[in-house]
Amino acid sequence: MIPLVLPSTSDAATPFVTRLGAVRGGDNRDARLLSDAGGIALYSGDVGLFTIDRPEGINLEGDIVLVDPCAGRAERLIRAGSDHNTLLVTERCDQLCIMCSQPPKKTHDDRFAAFTDACLLAPERSVIGISGGEPTLFKAELLELLETVLGKRPDLAFHILSNGQHFEQDDVERLRQPCYQRVQWGIPVYSADHISHDQIVAKEGALARLEKSFCHLLAAGARIELRTVMLSDNYHDLPRLARYVATRLPFIEHWSLMQLENAGFAKNRWDALYVDHQQDFAPLGQALDHAILLGLDVRLFNIPRCSVPQEYRRHAMASISDWKRRYAPACAPCHERDQCGGFFEWHPKDADLKVVPL
Ligand code: SF4
Predict the structure, then answer these.
(1) What pLDDT, on a 0 to 100 scale, did the predictor assign at position 176?
(2) What's the angle, vertex CA 16, arms to CA 10 and CA 21, rounded to 5?
(3) In 3-state terms, what secondary structure has residue 180?
(4) pLDDT tens digits, residue range 308-338?
(5) Ligand 1: does its nearest atom lie under 6 Å from the Cβ of 327?
(6) In this structure, are residues 20 and 61 in contact, taking their beta carbons and an 8 Å threshold?
(7) Residue 334 beta carbon below 6 angstroms from any ligand 1 atom
(8) CA 70 to CA 232: how far, in whole Å?
(9) CA-CA to 202 of 20 to 30 Å: which in 56, 283, 354, 357?
């Protein structure tokens, strides 16, 4: 697994954001590499000298890090060579999804200023992910970050995971600004049935509230990716959900159907929640057929390509982030490995036995 947090030392009094480089760039937040020996990289920047433990084989050149001198760590907020950079802006959430891979916490550490600095230093044309918790619980800070960054860096774009519970009529004018065309909102819908959706997210009235938000987002011309995690609770209802999406939400850009991640709450509930699409592909296949027939751009996430029948394989994306992705030993000769997301690092190993190199 690619490490995102590294031990670090610094005499600075407070945390700081800096971009690491062999030569110092034109920004006063750039730091220059002075030496790299014995697994310790020594840098010089406006804050003085600091070190970062660099694991063998890990290239830090161009990374944008948040160094916390008190905690003795450097967080790799934006890795220069990666398309999978996501900023976790809060761990608070007002839902409690039964399969949440990142269970919420009550505490909140406001790091929006550091995240804004980091985004301003991002490589050209980056797409930066934002997730939580629920980012829109801090909607004022979030929108300010987006507008500040996109105002200064028109080459950047954002993808934001949100439960869609907090968009209001008052947001519409603001979200109509041109800069929001570079923002895509990834919003989950788990069922066309209100009771079922609300049970999955553990919040009464959640789907009704979400439908209101969709009205506001539609009025704002917002770009939306709809997301559905497949669970034993909703799997057989996917064809109905496909019709709901096509008829009620035809303005979305994509519909992403996702396999379960064995992390967070799902880890202890795996046997009850996980549904093996290879054993029973019919509900998923019917949902795909409906979606495709009705003109939706549908995608499969967190699903190895060889586990999908050939006629649907073009929909299976390499969606798992590089830092938490693994392949089975048997994947080595596969010709479609570059297009395949493989497995989550922590996915049960018995799935490895089912891979069939393409
Ligand atoms: S063999 Fe491995 S790399 Fe190839 S499609 Fe299957 S899981 Fe993906």
Answers:
(1) 98
(2) 80
(3) helix
(4) 999 999 999 999 988 889 999 999 999 999 9
(5) yes
(6) yes
(7) yes
(8) 45
(9) 283
Token digits of residue 269: 């509930």
Closest CA relative to residue 64, chosen from 141, 117, 127: 117
Q: How close is the Cα of 2 to the center of ligand 1, in Å?
A: 20
331 within ligand 1 shell (Cβ under 6 A): yes
Report the complex ipTM.
0.98
Q: Please report the domains of the chain, with CATH numbers, ordered by start residue.
A: 5-76 (no CATH), 86-301 (3.20.20.70)
Q: What is the pLDDT of residue 323?
A: 85
For ligand 1, is residue 340 a contact (CB within 6 Å)? yes
pLDDT at 351: 87
> Residues 140-146: contacts with CB within 8 Å, 24+ apart?
141/89, 141/110, 141/112, 142/89, 142/112, 143/174, 144/112, 145/112, 145/115, 145/116, 145/119, 146/179, 146/180, 146/183
- Protein residue whose Cα sits closest to atom 2 of ligand 1: 331
* Strand pairing category for 127-131 and 298-301: unpaired
Write down the residue that tokens 């860096």 correspond to.
Answer: 153
336 CA to middle of ligand 1, Å?
Answer: 7
| Residue to mutate (ligand 1; options 301, 334, 339; most atoms within 8 A of CB) | 334
Q: What is the pLDDT of residue 23?
A: 74
What are 84's two structure tokens?
A: 């999978």
**Gap between the Cα atoms of 187 and 251, Å rounded:** 13
Residue given tokens 């390509």 in the structure block: 305
Point out the residues of the chain with pLDDT beneath 70. 24-25
Ligand 1 touching residue 342 (CB < 6 A): yes
Predicted local confidence at residue 78, as pLDDT: 97
The whole-angstrom separation of Cα 309 and Cα 1 is: 29
3-state secondary structure of 55: coil
Q: What number does the ligand 1 atom closest to the CA of 334 have?
A: 4
Residue corresponding to tokens 């519909």? 255
Residue 158 has a pLDDT of 98
pLDDT at 353: 82
